[in-house]
Specification:
By secondary structure, the protein is mainly α.
């Protein structure tokens, strides 16, 4: 990891909101090179500061898949009470595809129990991206596919097709 990335991660973890926003903005400009900061960016998506959240989201949008070494930290964040934190943790897990197989129980829990509809939808999508390793989630996905929420139903149906 570059010294620059380490410095930005340190700024994100700090309490200075201006420095957090500055670091998130710099990471957004790095695109996929900001991957080492994936977990730190997901965490600050829960910030009360609009600028921090917006720049962190921008950085995560251009990030691609996170490093596989961050898998367990992302799994822990899927259950976060913050909509944005849980959403982005599920998104990054989905981007890992089959490598995120250990996340299936946490994603299944999010699909079944998240308070926010967007988190349920993202969990369904992520399970589909994981593919056949997510077979244990099939009952929960079938239930979601029968949902009256059209987007959740579609995403769960697509996930079931992806799992096979």
């Amino acid at each position: 990891m570059s010294d620059k990335a380490e410095a930005y991660i340190s700024q994100l973890a700090g309490k200075d909101v201006a420095k957090q926003a500055e670091a998130a903005e710099a990471l957004a400009q790095l695109g996929p090179d900001a991957q080492p900061a994936a977990v730190a960016l997901v965490r600050v998506c829960g910030s009360e500061n609009d600028s921090v959240r917006e720049w962190a989201t921008s950085a995560l949008e251009g990030l691609g898949a996170p490093p596989e070494g961050q898998l367990h930290d992302l799994i822990a964040l899927v259950g976060n009470k913050s909509l944005d934190v849980a959403y982005w943790a599920a998104t990054l897990l989905g981007r890992l595809g089959d490598a995120a197989a250990p996340a299936v129980p946490a994603l299944t829990d999010a699909l079944q129990g998240a308070a926010e509809q967007a988190v349920k939808e993202r969990a369904a999508w992520a399970l589909g991206q994981i593919g056949s390793s997510a077979k244990s989630a099939v009952p929960a996905l079938r239930e979601a596919a029968a949902s009256k929420q059209p987007r959740l139903s579609r995403l769960a149906t697509e996930a079931l097709a992806g799992i096979g």
